[in-house]
Amino acid sequence: MPEAYIVEAVRTPVGRRGGSLAGMHSADLGGHALAALMRRSGVDPAAVDDVILGCCDTIGSQAGDVARTAWLVAGLPDHVPGVTIDRQCGSSQQAVHFAAQAVMSGTADLVVAGGVQNMSAIPISSAMVVGQQFGFATPFAESPGWRARYGDQEVSQFRSAEMIAEKWGISRQRMEEFALASHTRALAAIDAGHFAREIEPVGDFTTDEGPRRGTSPEKMAGLAPLRAGGRLTAALASQISDAASAMLIASEAAVRTHGLAPRARVHHLGVLADDPVWMLTGPIPATRRALEKTGMKIDDIDLFEVNEAFASVVLAWAQELGADLDKTNVNGGAIALGHPIGATGTRLMTSLLHELERTGGRYGLQVMCEGGGQANVTILERL
Prior knowledge:
This protein has 383 residues and is an alpha/beta fold. It has a domain at 267-382: Peroxisomal Thiolase, Chain A, domain 1 (3-Layer(aba) Sandwich). Helix content is 38%, strand content 18%. It is built from 13 helices and 10 strands. It has helices at residues 26-41, 66-73, 91-105, 126-133, 144-150, 157-167, 172-192, 217-221, 252-258, 283-294, 311-321, 334-337, 341-359; strands at residues 4-11, 15-16, 50-54, 82-85, 110-118, 241-251, 264-273, 303-306, 363-370, 374-382. Strands 1, 2, 3, 4, 5, 6, 7, 8, 9 and 10 form a 10-stranded mixed β-sheet that branches. Helix 3 crosses helix 13. The mean pLDDT is 96.
């Protein structure tokens, strides 16, 4: 089977809600990452076949096919098209999958994949709220067909995260220990300069804003739960954030033609769905199937990136699969670094690639929970 290679990967720093990137137009934010990607790769932008960006809540500054506008505002060639996709939290990871599938099929040779999200400017679920303002029902929960299948029950990520904590017996204290480790690891990585190579500064903004140096077990223990009687607090959930990230995916032919030095090979890509009411459990069966399809064992993986939508999601995943948490989110996760929804997939993959290179690891597995009970999973092989 033809191969798909990653030849370059870059991201902006992740800005916290209301932080350094809050006032930046989404097209310019995405364009910043795209311009940096092409400059770092040394590839003529005119040779790119397509640009695929993930983005959710595509209204306002994110409307009008932000993949196309981000490419154009970056000053890149008019003839290169762009398309914006939405697979919820996994949107830009799916962008990589589509890009890899394009080059593996022989229909493209060079594809840019990435994502952008300014959650400060356009809060999560804005598209649903706007729809309601115009008299339209929410996209799924008010659908007669949905209600006929799943009943009139609450469907939310917060309920799902609580259900997972209860089913897998994960205490609030255990989740707080995990969340504190996320901040500690992220701060250690920042202080050691582990992210410096992958980040393209935005003006004077050079470092992720999310990790909290002053957090402590006592502060976490004092927070009120997100739901009455629940175990989850704001400290145990991903942070609302702003960022952009991008990768250049190349075919074998493009590698030869442009004299490229691939950094990684896409060893496996897949997507699987689980119960949409539970919503966040998809990474468990998706990872299992990825290992089955590749003939790999969990111990064959050197590093894991499992999106920290909530602490309970990662802890349940590790418990079910027997994964080593010492190899999981080693430089912190979304609890500390933030979760700019459309950009997170390629933010994680960019960090995963750089950490494999830094440590000399061979295989990295990335998996993310997504709205609707879905999960993308990618296994990279460092070259």
